[in-house]
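Task: sequence design from structure.
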């Protein structure tokens, strides 16, 4: 059995290759997935805390499970908010194949998921990205988006805490990326082609009235019904896409609330990655179209990523 640490995960899962591996995987049928979410109280010191168990099973091929904790207050102590472990099993014999650092796997998988959505939905000439949120995932999302859209040369960064925002901008400068800290989301939106949000907000940060024709909105942060990064105007103005319908419609507040409130219908979601990658939906139809991609994650993505990782390790 392989034991794969975080350093190896990051070394082996370069974004161009991982994005392509996810695209290939989405041309097949999805595996059987489940999701167990245990949540802490909605107030007090443990607000927003969660424990997730995410199994996926391709009969005869592979099965795997991720166990993840979400502790938002870790950020105040300079620790990652998410920690995880992943176990991959042989789908034929049931034998353990790999024990993987799930935190690193989650960072890579989540960023590549959004980047695949961008490759299929954002304008090919997109030049500027607004990164909303400066947590551990932000640098990965920026790198993955740039791998999907090499035309992205400029990055604007907004975060509630200026210290974390400025640290991210400094790190981007060290990689010779044209990055700039911004104080206002509303003032930054007119300057950008892609907006990527990765926050733990309960109240929308992106308001649809601010969006401009041709923009692509990538929503990553909300993983339960109480979290929401975009308002009703966003989902009404944009063409709606998701990574996988079963893991987003009821799980993510960005879609759950507007559907429940009758603002939109579930049928307004035009396609997921399985439909986009298989060619059943063409993706962006017009240059002026506003596209919204809800990155809901899911056990299938962890399994796809773990399979690709083990293949890379075996051949590397």
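Answer:
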């Amino acid at each position: 059995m392989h034991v794969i640490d975080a350093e190896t995960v990051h070394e082996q899962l370069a974004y161009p290759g991982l994005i392509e591996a996810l695209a290939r995987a989405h041309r097949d049928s999805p595996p059987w997935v489940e999701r167990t979410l245990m949540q802490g109280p909605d107030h007090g010191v443990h607000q927003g805390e969660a424990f997730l168990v995410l199994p996926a099973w391709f009969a005869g091929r592979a099965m795997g499970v991720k166990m993840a904790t979400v502790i938002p207050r870790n950020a105040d102590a300079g620790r990652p908010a998410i920690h995880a472990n992943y176990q991959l099993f042989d789908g034929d014999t049931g034998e353990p194949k790999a024990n993987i650092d799930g935190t690193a796997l989650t960072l890579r998988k989540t960023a590549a998921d959004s980047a695949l959505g961008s490759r299929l939905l954002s304008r090919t000439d997109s030049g500027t990205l607004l990164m909303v949120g400066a947590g551990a995932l932000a640098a990965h999302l920026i790198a993955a988006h740039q791998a999907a859209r090499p035309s992205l040369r400029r990055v604007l960064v907004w975060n509630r805490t200026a210290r974390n925002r400025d640290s991210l901008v400094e790190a981007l400068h060290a990689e010779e990326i044209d990055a700039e800290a911004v104080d206002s989301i509303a003032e930054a939106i007119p300057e950008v082609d892609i907006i990527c949000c990765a926050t733990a907000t309960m109240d929308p940060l992106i308001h649809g009235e601010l969006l401009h024709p041709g923009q692509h909105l990538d929503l990553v942060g909300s993983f339960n019904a109480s979290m929401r990064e975009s308002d009703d105007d966003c989902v009404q103005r944009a063409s709606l896409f998701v990574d996988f319908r079963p893991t987003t419609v009821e799980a993510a507040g960005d879609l759950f609330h507007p559907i429940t409130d009758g603002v939109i219908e579930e049928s307004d979601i035009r396609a997921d990655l399985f439909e986009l990658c298989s060619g059943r939906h063409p993706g962006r139809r017009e240059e002026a179209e506003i596209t919204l991609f809800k990155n809901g994650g899911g056990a299938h993505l962890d399994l796809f990523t773990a399979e690709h990782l083990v293949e890379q390790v075996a051949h590397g």
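The two ends are 16 Å apart (CA to CA).
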